[in-house]
Design brief:
The complex is a heterodimer. Helices cover 47% and strands 13% of the residues of chain A. In chain A, helix 15 (439-443) links the parallel strand 13 and strand 14. In chain A, helix 1 packs across helix 6 (127-148), helix 4 crosses helix 5 and helix 13 crosses helix 14. Chain A is of the alpha/beta class. Chain A is built from 21 helices and 16 strands. Chain A has helices at 42-71, 73-76, 80-86, 89-102, 106-123, 127-148, 171-176, 195-202, 239-260, 286-292, 316-330, 365-371, 373-386, 402-422, 439-443, 459-467, 485-500, 518-524, 536-543, 548-559, 564-588; strands at 6-9, 11-14, 17-24, 162-166, 182-187, 207-209, 223-227, 232-235, 276-281, 297-302, 334-338, 391-396, 432-436, 455-457, 505-507, 528-531. Chain A folds into 3 domains: 6-27 and 155-248, Phosphohistidine domain (Glucose Oxidase, domain 1); 39-148, PtsI, HPr-binding domain (Enzyme I, Chain A, domain 2); 261-588, TIM Barrel (Alpha-Beta Barrel). Chain B has a single domain, classed as Histidine-containing Protein, Chain: A (2-Layer Sandwich), CATH 3.30.1340.10. Helices cover 36% and strands 28% of the residues of chain B. Chain B contains 3 helices and 4 strands, in the order E-H-E-E-H-E-H. Chain B has helices at 17-27, 48-54, 71-83; strands at 2-8, 33-38, 41-44, 61-67. In chain B, strands 1-4-2-3 form a 4-stranded antiparallel sheet, with helices on one face. In chain B, strand 2 (33-38) and strand 3 form a beta hairpin. In chain B, helix 1 (17-27) runs antiparallel to helix 3 (71-83). Chain B is globular, with a radius of gyration of 11 Å. The N and C termini of chain B lie far apart (28 Å). Classes of the chains: A alpha/beta, B alpha+beta.
C-alpha cells in the first residue's frame, strides 16, 4: 500500500541527518500464560527460576563491567538495584510460597509478583522511588527472557542498522543499544537534556526527542529520515524528499570526511602565530573523539551529566574516576573542568531545585554551589584528587561578581587544607578560572587580576543576557545573534582588559565554533578556542588560512559597523576570500 | 540479643537507590534478623524491594529492630549508613 509522507516536528537533541528503516520499540505489556503444574514438578520450577536468576546476574555483571570500562563507573551504577533484586529474599520467598499454593508455572508467578511491586512503586509520590519502578520492570524482563527462553525485553539485539523509535528509553535500555547499529534515535517524550539526548550527542548519532504521540503512525521497517539539527522527523518520505536529504547527508558526510584529513594541521595562523583549539566534552568517553579530531586539549568538560538522570548524587570516587580518565587520556594537554552548572534549563530532582519563573536569572551554577558547599566540596575533592594526573584546571560557571570568585576560591582552599591534613596528594598550583557569561563580569574583568588564573567566554549565556533574549523561545529566537555589535564590544573589552592584566582568555560557547567569526576573534586578540570535537579541523583550516594582519583588519572593519546583517555578510565574504573557493565550498556544504 | 533504636535518616536522598542498596548489602552480611519500622509498617531490612516500598525520605524517623548474635555490631554499622550525609 502506498504510504503518505508525514513530517513530524520534535525537539532537536543531537545534530546530523539519518536515513534508514524504523525499528519501533513497542510499549506492549508482555503477556505470560498461566500453566498448571503438579506437586512433583515444584522443585523443577524452583530450579528453573534459580538458573534464570543466575544467568541474568552474569548478563548484568557483563554489561556493567563493559560500561564501566567504556564510560566510567557512574554509568554502570544504573544496574545496582537490579543486581540486588536478583538476590532479594523477600521476593524469592514470596514467589516460592505462591508457587506452592497456586501450582502455576514459575514464569507466571514471577511476572505477577513483580507486576504488583512495580505498580506499588509507581503509586509512591516520591519521584526517585517512582523511577525505581523502571528498574523493577527492566529486571523483570531480563529474568523472564531467561525463564521462558523468549526475549521479553523491548530491545532485541539490533542485527541491522536502524533508526530507533520509542516512547522513551530508560538509561539501562539505552546502554544496551550498540551505537554502531543505531543510525538515529527518536523518542516521543523528553527534551534536549534527557539521557537519550546526551547519549546521542556523545555518540554523534542524530536524534529528535519530544515528538509527542507518533508510534501509532510508524511501523517497523518504514523508511524514515531524521534531521537532528532541525528536530524534524519524516516518515515514508517521497522520492523527491529522500533524494534531497540523501544529497544533503552525502554533502555533510563528505565535508566531515574531507575536513578530518586536516585534523593534524598545526593550530596556528598563516603567519605562524600559535593558537589553541580545544574540545568541549560532556561524557568522559568523548575524549576519544576529541583526540581523533586533533584537539589541543579539553577547554570545557561539562560535568552536569554526572548528576543528571539518576536518583542520587555522584560520589567523590565516581567523579574522581571520570576526571582521571579524561585527564590521563589528554595528557600532556590541558583539561578544564567546569564545576556543576545546573539550574537554568537543567533541573535535577535530587538537588531540591524547584521550578522558577525566570530560571536563567535564578538559582543556578556557582550560586547553587556556594549555597550548598557540601555538594560543591565533593566535586572539588574529586577534581583536586585528579589534578595529580595531568594539567587539570578548574573553572567556575556563571560568576557575576568578584565576591563569588573569592568565595569559590576559599572553598577550594578549604578542600586543599583538608587534603594537607589527610595527606592526599594534589596539584598545589592548580589553575582556577571563571567563565564570563554575565555582562557585569565582562565589564569588570580587570578586577579579577590575581583572583582568576584564566577566563573562558561562555557566549551562549553572555549573548542571551546582553541582548535580553531567551533563545529557547521560538518567537524571539531570531533576536539572538553573536553578530550584535553590543556583544562584539563586550567581547572586545574582555579580551583587551584581560590582556592588560595578564589573564589568559578563551572562548567556549557556540560562537567559537562558527568559523566565520574566527578571523574576527583572532583579530580582536583571542588565541584559545574550545568547540565541539567535530568542528576542530574546520577551525584549524580557517586559522591556517588567515594572517594576523588580515584578521586585525577584519576586526577593525567589523567594529565600525552597526548593522548585524552587514557584519554577518562581511564576515562570510571575508571567510570565502581567505579560504579560496574550493575550501569555502567545503565548509559551506 | 535484641536491640531497638529510633534513628533519623540523614542521607540526603533518604533511603533510595544508592543508600538503600548499600544498606541491604551490608545488612545481609549479618546473621541477625534486621527489620525497619516506619509508622505501622515493619519490613525486612535485608530486602531491597521492601526498603524501596517503605519510601523513607530524608529526615524521616525510622526504627531499626535487630535481633541475633551480632546485633550490636550490625546496629553500629547500619546506623552509620543511615546517618551519613554523603552516602
Amino acid at each position: 500500500m502506498f504510504k503518505k509522507e508525514q513530517i513530524i516536528k520534535g525537539v532537536s537533541a543531537s545534530p546530523g541527518i539519518a536515513i534508514g528503516k524504523a525499528y519501533v520499540i513497542s510499549e506492549d505489556i508482555l503477556k505470560v500464560e498461566k500453566r498448571i503444574i503438579k506437586d512433583a514438578e515444584l522443585s523443577e520450577e524452583i530450579k528453573n527460576l534459580e538458573t534464570a536468576l543466575l544467568k541474568t546476574k552474569r548478563e548484568i555483571v557483563d554489561i556493567q563491567s563493559k560500561m564501566a570500562k567504556e564510560m566510567g563507573s557512574n554509568y554502570a551504577n544504573i544496574f545496582d538495584v537490579q543486581l540486588m533484586l536478583l538476590e532479594d529474599r523477600v521476593l524469592l520467598e514470596e514467589i516460592i510460597e505462591r508457587l506452592r499454593k497456586e501450582l502455576l508455572g514459575v514464569e507466571y508467578i514471577f511476572f505477577d509478583v513483580l507486576k504488583k511491586y512495580k505498580r506499588a512503586l509507581e503509586k509512591l509520590e516520591d519521584p526517585y522511588l517512582k523511577e525505581r519502578a523502571q528498574d523493577v520492570n527492566d529486571f523483570g524482563k531480563r529474568v523472564l527472557k531467561n525463564l521462558i527462553g523468549k526475549d521479553a525485553s523491548r530491545i532485541k539485539e539490533l542485527r541491522n542498522k536502524a533508526i530507533i523509535i520509542a516512547h522513551d528509553l530508560s538509561p539501562s535500555e539505552a546502554a544496551v543499544l550498540n551505537p554502531e547499529y543505531v543510525l538515529g534515535l527518536v523518542t516521543e517524550s523528553g527534551g534536549s537534556t534527557t539521557h537519550t539526548a546526551i547519549m546521542a550527542k556523545s555518540f554523534e548519532i542524530p536524534a529528535v526527542v519530544g515528538t509527542g504521540s507518533i508510534m501509532g503512525n510508524i511501523e517497523i521497517d518504514d523508511p524514515i529520515i531524521i534531521d537532528g539539527s532541525r528536530g524534524v522527523l519524516i516518515v515514508n518520505p517521497h522520492q523527491a524528499t529522500l533524494k534531497e536529504y540523501e544529497n544533503k547527508k552525502n554533502k555533510i558526510d563528505e565535508k566531515f570526511l574531507n575536513l578530518l584529513k586536516l585534523k593534524d594541521l598545526k593550530s596556528q595562523t598563516k603567519d605562524g602565530t600559535s593558537i589553541k583549539i580545544m574540545a568541549n566534552i560532556e561524557l568522559s568517553h568523548e575524549v576519544k573523539s576529541a583526540i581523533n579530531h586533533g584537539a589541543d586539549g579539553v577547554g570545557l568538560y561539562r560535568t552536569e551529566y554526572l548528576y543528571l538522570n539518576r536518583s542520587d548524587l555522584p560520589s567523590e570516587e565516581e567523579q574522581y574516576q571520570a576526571y582521571k580518565l579524561v585527564t590521563l587520556q589528554m595528557t600532556p594537554n590541558t583539561v578544564i573542568i567546569r564545576t556543576l552548572d545546573l539550574g537554568g534549563d537543567k533541573l535535577v530532582s535530587q538537588l531540591d531545585m524547584s521550578y522558577e519563573l525566570n530560571p536563567f536569572l535564578g538559582w543556578r551554577a556557582i550560586r547553587f554551589c556556594l549555597a550548598r558547599p557540601a555538594i560543591f566540596k565533593v566535586q572539588l575533592r574529586a577534581i583536586l584528587r585528579a589534578s595529580v594526573h595531568g594539567d587539570l584546571q578548574i573553572m567556575f560557571p556563571m560568576i557575576s561578581n568578584i565576591e563569588e570568585m573569592e568565595e569559590a576560591r576559599k572553598i577550594v582552599n578549604e578542600v586543599m587544607q583538608e587534603f594537607d591534613k589527610e595527606e592526599i596528594p594534589y596539584n598545589k598550583d592548580v589553575k582556577i578560572g571563571a567563565m564570563i557569561e554575565t555582562p557585569s563580569v565582562a565589564m569588570t574583568c580587570d578586577h579579577f587580576k590575581n583572583k582568576a588564573d584564566f577566563f573562558s567566554i561562555g557566549t551562549n549565556d553572555l549573548i542571551q543576557y546582553t541582548i535580553a533574549v531567551d533563545r529557547i523561545n521560538e518567537k524571539i529566537a531570531y533576536l539572538y545573534d553573536p553578530a550584535h555589535p553590543g556583544v562584539l564590544r563586550l567581547i572586545e573589552n574582555i579580551i583587551q582588559k584581560s590582556g592588560e592584566n595578564n589573564i589568559p582568555v578563551g572562548m567556549c560557547g557556540e560562537m567559537a565554533g562558527e568559523s566565520r567569526y574566527l578571523p574576527l576573534l583572532l583579530g580582536l586578540g583571542l588565541r584559545n578556542f574550545s568547540v565541539s570535537p567535530l568542528i576542530i579541523p574546520e577551525l584549524k583550516l580557517v586559522a591556517s588560512s588567515v594572517t594576523l594582519d588580515q584578521a586585525k583588519e577584519i576586526a577593525r572593519e567589523v567594529m565600525g559597523l552597526s548593522s548585524r546583517e552587514k557584519i554577518r555578510q562581511y564576515l562570510s565574504l571575508k571567510l570565502r576570500e581567505i579560504l579560496g573557493s574550493d575550501y569555502a565550498e567545503l565548509i559551506e556544504a | 540479643m535484641k536491640l531497638e533504636k529510633r534513628i533519623k535518616v540523614i542521607s540526603e536522598q533518604g533511603l533510595h537507590a544508592r543508600p538503600a542498596a548499600m544498606f541491604v548489602e551490608v545488612a545481609n552480611r549479618f546473621v541477625s534478623s534486621i527489620k525497619i519500622a516506619k509508622g505501622e509498617l515493619v519490613v525486612d531490612g535485608k530486602s531491597i524491594l521492601n526498603i524501596l516500598m517503605l519510601g523513607v525520605e530524608c529526615s524521616e524517623e525510622i526504627t531499626l529492630q535487630i535481633e541475633g548474635e551480632d546485633a550490636q555490631e550490625a546496629m553500629g554499622v547500619l546506623e552509620d549508613i543511615i546517618t551519613r550525609k554523603d552516602v
